[in-house]
Amino acid sequence: MNNLDDHYSKGLIKIALFITLTGVVLFALSFILFSYKQPFNIDKSVDSELLSHLGAFSSGIIGAMWSLAGILFFYVALRTQSRQLELQREEISLQRDELELTRKEVKRSADAQEKSEKALSEQSKILKKTLVYQAFDALTSEYRTPEMLQAVRNLWDFARDNENDMKKVYLQRLEEDKIRVREAPPEIRVQMESQTIHSQRRIVSQFYSRIATFIEERIIPEDIFYSSWGETDLEIIPKILIPLENAIIDTITKDRVKPLDENSKLMRLYEGSKTKSIIF
Predict the structure, then answer these.
(1) CA–CA gap between residue 192 and residue 197 (Å, rounded)
(2) Helix/strand/coil percent split, the chain, to 5
(3) Residue range 69-79, pLDDT digits in tens
(4) C-alpha neighbours within 13 Å on the C-beta side of residue 121
(5) What is the mean pLDDT of the chain?
(6) Which residue ranges of the chain lie beneath pLDDT 50?
């Protein structure tokens, strides 16, 4: 279609040029004939009738030819301008289509990115939950070991047997066990040390201190921990662990360590069991 329009426009231009040149040739011939019929003489007047015929011929025939050529040129110019406007509209339409495709591609890319981020977020949540349950399972497994169960049982037995003067007896036992372990054969000192009430208190105290740190650092969620450890399980903290540790602090490390109070992380761990424990 474009080639046909161009060919048509070029044909019209050729016709208009031909008509224009023909008019020029006719005008030139008529002027030559006029000059032949009426030689140029400054002293002789010009034949007005002959000049009138020349003007009529020029305005009638040659003027009409040139008007037709002008109309053809104007028509070609209009067609060319119309074609240019059409091309501009097509170009704008193509640009609009390209922008729409680009917008869709950007949206598709954004959607894919959002889905990828959601998938990564879900994987991260799953991994976090997996790590939490692994850490919690490790703690519960440690709590169920024979050494831990024996240590907890021995501490409760010690507290019941020395209910009125538990701290005093504990400090005495601490010194006695030191001497006994020091005087024992080297090959059995480690075993004897592990059986002392002081060593067993440290095992239990450090276990709960580690749990308190995990909860405060949000490594293990409170609801997961307190679903397995209730107030009864944690009563060992205020009734045995903190009194015995404060006895050591008051006697041995008084100037270096502050006594444990209700703001200590062990007490916060115990207090949490009163409100967050799940009762079945």
Answers:
(1) 10
(2) 85, 0, 15
(3) 777 777 778 87
(4) 6
(5) 81
(6) 40, 278-280
**Residue 233 corresponds to which tokens in the numbers above?**
């399980």
Q: 150 and 272 in one domain?
A: yes
- CA distances to 10, 131, 140, 219, 225 from 272, in Å: 95, 23, 18, 16, 10
Close Cβ partners of 198 (under 8 Å, ≥ 6 residues apart) = 170, 173, 174, 177
Domains in the chain: how many in total?
2
Q: CA-CA distance, 127 to 226, in Å (whole number)?
A: 22
pTM for this model (two decimals)? 0.57
**C-alpha separations of 228 from 140, 221, 265, 276, 277 in Å:** 9, 12, 19, 11, 8
Q: Which domain holds residue 234?
A: 145-276
Based on the domain organization, do 64 and 172 belong to the same domain?
A: no
On whether residue 154 sits in a domain, the answer given is yes
Q: How far apart are CA 170 and CA 93, in angstroms?
A: 92
Taking the C-alpha atoms of residue 46 and residue 38, their distance in angstroms, rounded to an integer, is 7
CA atoms within 13 A on the CB side of 275: 4
Give me the half-sphere count of Cα atoms (radius 13 Å) on the Cβ side of residue 265: 13
**270 shares a domain with 158:** yes
Distance set, CA 250 to CA 170, 196, 242, 254, 259 (Å): 13, 20, 12, 5, 7
